[in-house]
Amino acid sequence: MKTVLVPLAQGCEELEAITIIDLLRRAGITVITAGLDEKPVKASRGVMLIPDTTLDNAVKQSLDMIVLPGGLPGADHLNNDPRIHQLLKEMAQQGKPIAAICAAPKVLANAGLLANKSATSYPGVLENMEVPDMHFKDVPVLKDGNIITSRGPGTAMDFALELIDTLVGHEIRTQVEASLVRA
Prior knowledge:
Rossmann fold; two-stranded antiparallel sheet; Class_I_gatase-like; DJ-1/PfpI family protein; DJ-1
């Protein structure tokens, strides 16, 4: 079974976090939510989230993917945490998938993971960053090698479905999507 870490920082975008967690679990993927500390997380719209564990405990697990929800100031808190940068770099070195949505792709950029990659983000987040040979694209979801990025709350479901496709295949993605009755 695949295991995914979703770090939850104070001020994260709850729609993105919950959509990612919910859809991945529907696909039979183990999702570990981890707070940067031991406190409950107050998301950007005031929803209280209780992480499964702390980041320090979560990184002891064998992880197949890390997914960063966006939102502000949540993405800033992730970006300012050296443990997140270290984990992203380790997973990249192992060739494992790394994903970020909304404002969180800036964490990938600041960790040096978007050089020579195509990526997307919430409007205004990546376009003006000076990342060597990064190609910004205004698309809902973008996969470039092991990096998956997305635009924001409105693209969270498509983003989560792409994560499922990447981890467990198109058949499971199709089953999960069908059960959502999107059309």
